[in-house]
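Hi all, long-time lurker, first post. I run a small reading group and we've been trying to get comfortable going from sequence to structure in the token notation. Rather than ask abstract questions, I figured I'd post a concrete chain and ask someone more experienced to write out its structure so we can walk through it together at our next meeting. Sequence below, copied exactly:
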Amino acid sequence: MAKILSSPLPNIPWEDRPSDCSEPMWRFSGNPITKRNPVGEVARIFNSAVMPYNEGFVGVFRGEQKNGVPHIYLGRSSDGISWDFGKEKIPFTDPDGKPFMPIYAYDPRLVKVEDVYYIIWCQDFYGASIGIAKTTDFKKFERIENPFLPYNRNAVLFPRKIGGRYVMLSRPCDNGHTAFGDIFLSESPDMELWGRHRHVMSPSHRWWDAMKIGAGPAPIETDLGWLLIYHGVVNTCNGYVYSIGAAILDRDEPSKVLHRCTDYLLTPEEWYEERGFVPNVCFPCAALADSETGRIALYYGCADSYVGIAFTDIDTVTDFILTHDCTTETDTEIGKR
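-- Answer (accepted) --
Happy to help. Here is the structure in token form:
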């Protein structure tokens, strides 16, 4: 029996496993939870992150504007399923309160560390790079100036400091649609200066995550280690396919992979995953977890067009990883050559 080491979340969105489902993760019957043209000049919302806030939920959503430029929009929900979206882009500022908007922003994550909420996304800094902003009230959003050099994507914070430092996963890339990609780890004393970079995971020889991988939601702390849900990509004769997999990282040295699953948890199979602006995409960005019941609700982008939810529980997903473990020596090393 595995145990989630976080606060209870009694109002976590949930739907029991269908009686005919034998998979480690199952989809919400109401998927997708976002529709086309959700607000104003936004054509599609997808690849977005949510978390508990007050008595309900708050989210940062990738809104693909009708002019093709992505930005981040704020959403609020009482149940984590039905969402009200802000009509305007999130108004980022510099430390002096002056407007400091990115040229574009996409694929956000949302993580609370201590009493501060951090939004992490991909932006333009003379090439793809990591953007970070912080808020305590979801009214004022202060950007941290260019914490990383280009080129980098898929950054996500751990939800607590490790060894007294902030820790973040990311995937260095090139300036195009990278045809390669490993997950790395970086540390910071202050969320501004980052170093002690270490390798975590590489793509595998398996088909579903053979080309590149990237961290998804903030890792979930368990008594077995950090549960990392990630996306894996393969290049087929008809384009890229994005699937969802999982691994368990060491709690004190998270650059060490303790267990890694040979099989995916979820791969494009439903119409809203296979058919859309970019077909065949399941892209995880957020996970809610309830320590009392062990329930996990995963939010994922579908075909660059929608947001979907899938469910599992901590025993099911960790048992699946351990049963299908394929960890290699490269995975288990600390990664600081």
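A couple of things your group might point at:
The chain is about 5% helix and 45% strand.
Residues 96 and 211 are 42 Å apart (CA to CA).
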